[in-house]
Write a structure and sequence with these properties.
This protein is of the alpha+beta class. The protein is 35% helix and 34% strand. It is built from six helices and 18 strands. It is globular, with a radius of gyration of 20 Å.
């Protein structure tokens, strides 16, 4: 099963995306249950369950979950964390973090204009970044692994590679990341890549008519799709060159290209934390 097979699959998928567009609509918010106990509104959560405004997500002592917003932005809850989905407007997505730790990856791949995370102690507003927020006993902290975050009432900037704590609503001085911070960011970036791959695969496999058409031309299964996408991510298949040969356009074609680009960017960023 060589590269030519995956190249053909990629061509057929792109053709199908062009002909049939995006089927199934865009999901505002859904959840991946990564491990352990995860609750939504005090009931056991199901993998890929859709969420709505005011839903409460809580992880147990061994629970990890990833909230996916508009099929692009992600909020990863660490153990013993509780958040509320306070707003799902595309102009202003809002999350209230009551306790615990989250990693927030906001890339604006699909048009979310603003993202705000509120803790009992402070507020963080971001556009295009990856950062950790923790809150406990009236204190909070922000650790920025990518881009920048504006924090607190003063909208003080926390740049990439820095951390800042807030005690009783008062922002502290900027500090360099500790080795533990860098190790945490490295793990989250790898998890971001894995989540983006899952979201991309979910987007493609929602296109039932597309897959039916493609399988008539060249039989393949879901494992083949993943292997083909892995070759794109590894640079063995260049989708930009492919699109020059087959100049197809459309909203879903562009979305898949953005996912591919986002994965490559995260792979490059990950090298800075090696």
């Amino acid at each position: 099963m060589g590269g030519n097979r995956y190249l053909l699959i990629a061509i057929v998928i792109l053709l199908g995306l062009f002909l049939y567009g995006c089927g199934g609509g865009e999901t505002k918010a859904y959840l991946y249950v990564e491990s352990g106990e995860v609750l939504v509104n005090n009931a056991g959560a199901a993998d890929e369950m859709e969420l709505k405004t005011n839903d409460i997500i809580k992880t147990g002592a061994n629970g990890i979950a990833t909230l996916v917003l508009y099929e692009s932005e992600t909020v990863r809850l660490q153990p013993n964390t509780e958040i509320v989905v306070s707003s799902l407007s595309k102009n202003n997505v809002g999350i209230k973090q009551n306790s615990g730790q989250t990693w927030n990856k906001i890339s604006k791949l699909t048009g979310v204009n603003s993202y705000e995370l509120q803790t009992p102690d402070t507020v963080a507003t971001v556009r295009g970044t990856g950062f950790k927020v923790w809150t406990k006993d009236g204190e909070s902290g922000i650790i920025v692994g990518e881009g920048k975050v504006l924090a607190g009432k003063e909208m003080k900037e926390v740049p990439e590679g820095k951390r800042m704590n807030s005690k009783r609503g008062i922002l502290q001085n900027l500090e360099d990341l500790s080795p533990e911070d860098r190790a945490f960011i490295k793990k989250q970036l790898q998890d971001d890549i894995n989540t983006m791959k899952k979201v991309r695969f979910r987007t493609i496999t929602k296109q039932k008519r597309l897959l039916a058409l493609a399988k008539k031309i060249k039989p393949f299964d879901e494992n083949d799709i993943n292997k083909g996408l892995d070759e794109v991510d590894a640079g063995k298949v260049n989708e930009e060159e492919l699109l020059k040969r087959f100049p197809l356009k459309g909203p879903l074609v562009e979305k898949i290209r953005k996912y591919n680009r986002g994965i490559r960017e995260k792979q490059e960023l990950l090298k800075r934390y090696e």
